[in-house]
Amino acid sequence: MTTDPQSSRWYDAEAGPVVRPYAMTRGRTSSASRHRLDLIALVVPEPAAEDPGRDQTLAPEHVTIVELCSDAPQSIAELAAGLDLPVGVVRVLVGDLVEDELVHVTRPVPPAELPDVNILREVINGLRAL
């Protein structure tokens, strides 16, 4: 019986190193952040995040999230797709960054808070009547 170390691998070389999602979040399924992180919530870097590599406590995924958002704000869904990670993992990682004050999250305006279309039409009609 041969015990070739190459044959005992359970993943192929093209897949690269396998890191389980719970390892990235240290077993957490939610963050301590009080912010609700919707799929369409935008992640915007703070000025303190100009050099995310300076903080040695950040995981590579945290640094990548800050770098992705530095060009343009990204939604949670866009980050998950860009990083090829589950949305739940990205929510935890973004929550960590919010707690460290490296990013802030802007939530979309709820539909109930948007102005009524009929009121806007009446205002436009009133302005046209002047």
Helix content: 25-40%
End-to-end separation in angstroms reads 94 Å
In percent, how much strand structure appears in the residues? 5-15%
Question: For the residues shown, what is the average pLDDT?
Answer: 76
Secondary structure tally, helices: 5
Shape: elongated
Q: Structural class, from helix and strand content?
A: mainly alpha
Give the strand tally. 3
Provide the gyration radius in Å: 22 Å
Low-confidence residue ranges:
none
Largest sheet: 3 strands, antiparallel
H-E string? HEHEHHEH
Question: How is this structure best described in words?
Answer:
The chain is mainly alpha-helical and 130 residues long. Helices cover 38% and strands 8% of the residues. The chain contains 5 helices and 3 strands. It has a 3-stranded antiparallel β-sheet with strand order 2-1-3. Helix 2 (60-71) packs across helix 4 (87-99) and helix 3 crosses helix 4. The longest helix has 13 residues, at 87-99. It is elongated and about 70 Å long. The chain starts with 20 loop residues before the first helix and ends with a helix.
